């Protein structure tokens, strides 16, 4: 059974007694910095002077300085910039002041797992990974709640690496919901697999394939959009609330029968074999090498695929239909998420 920690298992005073640098102010960075500050922790946000987030962070009442200055000042350094930016940031801004006794933290184990960052001996290396986008980390904290998180220790030089990580997790609100123990390898490999096979790659491909099947058969694109994309949220919300059983309890018997009979035909043995190949590529590092090489080359293939999917008919139809729904907040799609 997975070991789960709560606020009662954490000594929040451990993190309140340290200076914490949060490097980055994106989805996770803003939530961590603000939650830590509200929990009574001394925080500095590390950002390049040219970052558009500098004024945003200062307006929120946070102390902002350069990444190098923040890392030199801090006892605990939390790295919350995109995976592909971390190795360069580490070499230039973190390593020069990563002296024995400090703690280096991450919210995703990618760079440690695949060796693009190798911390020196004498420092603690740990992970606190909220299982939620940053805005939910912040929202639930403000509501007196929290989101579950993962905790892992890669290097325990002080003997207190886990205790400090749990204190950090408690300070951002995750101790209210539960902090599950894992390893850097398990967190990284399951996260990458889940993104590729189910949450992003699998779900997006299934939605597009369903839409294309209906449109190719002569059905209206607008109707296909609602059936294959729009209503997916209703189903996922039911799963989120009560698992597959609650989803099936909430839908019609006809839909439930179709679930049992058609689901295994769509996601068949071939699909599971492909999932196993995806997992193997994650575990042996070949996916990471390919993604790192893509970034080093300037992301040409990534840019091509992004542009092609933005022009897919389901996106064109969806943009028009969403304009009819004033209850949906406006969103940006001109930049990738973190």
Helices and strands in order, then pairings?
Elements: E1 4-5, H1 13-16, E2 19-23, H2 27-38, E3 42-46, H3 53-59, E4 63-65, H4 67-73, E5 76-79, H5 83-94, E6 103-106, H6 110-113, E7 124-130, H7 134-142, E8 149-155, H8 161-171, E9 179-181, H9 184-199, H10 201-216, H11 221-230, H12 232-250, H13 253-266, H14 269-283, H15 286-296, H16 300-310, H17 313-322
Parallel strand pairs: 2-3, 2-5, 3-4, 5-6, 6-7, 8-9
Antiparallel strand pairs: 1-9, 7-8
Helix pairs in contact: 2-7, 4-5, 9-10, 9-14, 10-11
Q: Could you explain how this protein is built, in words?
A:
The protein is an alpha/beta fold. 56% of the residues lie in helices and 12% in strands. It has 17 helices and nine strands. The protein has helices spanning 13-16, 27-38, 53-59, 67-73, 83-94, 110-113, 134-142, 161-171, 184-199, 201-216, 221-230, 232-250, 253-266, 269-283, 286-296, 300-310, 313-322, and strands at 4-5, 19-23, 42-46, 63-65, 76-79, 103-106, 124-130, 149-155, 179-181. Strands 1-9-8-7-6-5-2-3-4 form a nine-stranded mixed sheet, with helices on both faces. Strand 2, helix 2 (27-38) and strand 3 (42-46) form a beta-alpha-beta unit. Helix 2 packs parallel to helix 7 (134-142) and helix 9 runs parallel beside helix 10. The longest helix is centred in the last third of the chain and has 19 residues, at 232-250. The two termini are 31 Å apart. The relative contact order is 0.10. The model has no long low-confidence stretch (mean pLDDT 96).
């Amino acid at each position: 059974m997975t070991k789960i920690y709560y606020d009662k298992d954490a000594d929040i005073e451990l993190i309140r007694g340290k200076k914490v640098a949060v490097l980055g102010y994106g989805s996770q960075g803003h939530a961590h910095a603000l939650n830590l500050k509200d929990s009574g922790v001394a925080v500095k946000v590390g950002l390049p002077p040219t970052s558009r987030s500098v004024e945003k962070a200062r307006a929120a009442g946070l102390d902002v300085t350069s990444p190098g200055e923040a890392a030199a000042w801090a006892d605990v350094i939390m790295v919350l910039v995109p995976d592909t930016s971390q190795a360069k940031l580490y070499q230039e801004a973190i390593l020069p002041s990563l002296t024995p006794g400090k703690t280096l933290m991450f919210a995703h184990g990618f760079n440690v797992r695949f060796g693009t960052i190798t911390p020196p001996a004498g420092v603690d290396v740990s992970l606190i990974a909220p299982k939620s986008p940053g805005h939910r980390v912040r929202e639930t904290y403000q509501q007196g709640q929290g989101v579950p998180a993962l905790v892992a220790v890669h290097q325990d030089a002080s003997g207190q690496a886990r205790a400090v990580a749990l204190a950090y997790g408690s300070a951002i609100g995750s101790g209210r919901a539960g902090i599950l123990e894992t390893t850097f390898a398990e967190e990284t490999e399951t996260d990458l697999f889940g993104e590729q096979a189910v949450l992003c790659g699998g779900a997006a491909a299934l939605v597009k394939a369903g839409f294309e099947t209906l449109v190719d058969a002569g059905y209206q694109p607008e109707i296909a959009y609602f059936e294959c994309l729009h209503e997916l949220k209703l189903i996922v919300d039911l799963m989120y609330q009560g698992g597959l059983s609650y989803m099936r309890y909430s839908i019609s018997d006809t839909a439930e029968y179709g679930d049992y009979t058609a689901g295994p035909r769509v996601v068949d043995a071939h699909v599971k074999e492909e999932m196993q190949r995806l997992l193997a590529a994650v575990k042996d590092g070949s996916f990471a090498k390919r993604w790192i090489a893509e970034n080093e080359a300037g992301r040409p293939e990534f840019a091509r695929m992004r542009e092609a999917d933005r022009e897919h008919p389901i996106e064109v139809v969806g943009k028009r239909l969403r304009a009819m729904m004033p209850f949906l907040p406006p969103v940006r799609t001109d930049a990738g998420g973190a």
